[in-house]
DNA sequence: GCAAATTAATGATTTATTCAAG
DNA sequence: CTTGAATAAATCATTAATTTGC
């Protein structure tokens, strides 16, 4: 069939890796000259023009920031957990794990609560995660050394999460189906 | 009898299946609370602690990415590989980009170039960036056509990224060993 | 068949990056 | 410019698979 001559640049894996390598090592907003050089090099690995390089860095930088923000805004849901050995616990967990999105203006600072585990693990303050919760289900899921989860306010899940992706999301999953949550307090 | 002090967690098949199910359905980086919940549930199927869950997701995600990248790098789809992937190309580019770091006072100019570019692009004055960078630029930047080694004599590797290859390990094109090179002349 | 020897997986640690707040 | 937070990448280390000589 008369394949439409792809109207847009499609980076080869090598080009992509090289761009990412440059990005990883600090290049963010290359100037004209730099773009020219990059383009020259990458052109050995496939069709490419300067504007592609320019746009790539623009987009990559932006999406990186976006990803970070999203990452920071991941909030824990309410502790519920007496399903114990329910054979249906998985679906329930899923409900709890849907990515949460908070309001735009919400201060990022108070929203983190993610995994400072690593640090705590290394510092030995990881009782909460090191200890085996095997004994019984605790309804006070975490108590985290007093000050850890003060901002663990009540979230109200509004709805939906058709998430059923099979591929590898997370990274460039710019738009993962997310449920919408709102602070109710 | 001093039982083999199994030094590390060994997931039961049930635990593994549950973790994989969670992963398949989108869980990638569970936060503290979520880890607690997962741990609580999985503990019904065998000994387990929070950090095991944490590490499991870290590793699984990382190795998934790794697998994907390795797969991608195996499909270099252009015949331009006469230059193939020169290990020198990156360092050279980096060298070019080093001067990008400016002192506080004079930062504006460089930074603004990106915007200028965009403007030009949108205004149609982007001939310089749209045009394919053939020949000319290449010469000034890299001489490597006659055997890239000639270029290397002038380079001094700073070893920003020590290429400690443990040999055996995985990897391939994922992370090109990038060292920071500087002209010594 | 069966261990010792080898190799592949994968759990656990360490190290480097990144963004952005201070 | 410095530092905090939070990974992701790299790598170390141990367990499971498998191969191999008998």
TrEMBL record, chains A, B:
<dbReference type="InterPro" id="IPR001356">
    <property type="entry name" value="HD"/>
</dbReference>
<keyword id="KW-0539">Nucleus</keyword>
<comment type="similarity">
    <text>Belongs to the WUS homeobox family.</text>
</comment>
<keyword id="KW-0217">Developmental protein</keyword>
<feature type="domain" description="Homeobox">
    <location>
        <begin position="2"/>
        <end position="67"/>
    </location>
</feature>
<keyword id="KW-0805">Transcription regulation</keyword>
<protein>
    <recommendedName>
        <fullName>Homeobox domain-containing protein</fullName>
    </recommendedName>
</protein>
<keyword id="KW-0238">DNA-binding</keyword>
<dbReference type="GO" id="GO:0003677">
    <property type="term" value="F:DNA binding"/>
</dbReference>
<keyword id="KW-0371">Homeobox</keyword>
<dbReference type="GO" id="GO:0005634">
    <property type="term" value="C:nucleus"/>
</dbReference>
<dbReference type="InterPro" id="IPR044555">
    <property type="entry name" value="WUSCHEL-like"/>
</dbReference>
<dbReference type="GO" id="GO:0003700">
    <property type="term" value="F:DNA-binding transcription factor activity"/>
</dbReference>
<feature type="DNA-binding region" description="Homeobox">
    <location>
        <begin position="4"/>
        <end position="68"/>
    </location>
</feature>
<dbReference type="Pfam" id="PF00046">
    <property type="entry name" value="Homeodomain"/>
</dbReference>
<dbReference type="InterPro" id="IPR009057">
    <property type="entry name" value="Homeodomain-like_sf"/>
</dbReference>
<keyword id="KW-0804">Transcription</keyword>
<dbReference type="GO" id="GO:0099402">
    <property type="term" value="P:plant organ development"/>
</dbReference>
């Amino acid at each position: 069939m008369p394949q439409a001559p792809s109207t847009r640049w499609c980076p080869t894996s090598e080009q992509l890796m090289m761009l990412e390598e440059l990005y990883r090592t600090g290049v963010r907003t290359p100037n004209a000259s730099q773009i020219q050089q990059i383009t020259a090099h990458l052109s050995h690995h496939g069709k490419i023009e300067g504007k592609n390089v320019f746009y790539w860095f623009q987009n990559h930088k932006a999406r990186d920031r976006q990803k970070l923000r999203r990452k920071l805004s991941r909030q824990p849901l309410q502790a519920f957990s007496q399903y114990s050995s329910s054979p249906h616990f998985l679906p329930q967990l899923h409900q709890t794990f849907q990515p949460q999105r908070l309001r735009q203006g919400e201060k990022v600072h108070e929203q983190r609560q993610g995994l400072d585990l690593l640090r705590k693990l290394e510092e030995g303050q990881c009782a909460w995660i090191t200890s085996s919760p095997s004994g019984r289900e605790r309804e006070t899921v975490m108590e985290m050394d007093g000050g850890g989860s003060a901002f663990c306010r009540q979230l109200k899940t509004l709805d939906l999460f058709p998430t059923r992706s099979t591929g590898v999301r997370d990274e460039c999953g710019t738009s993962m189906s997310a449920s919408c949550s709102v602070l109710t307090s």
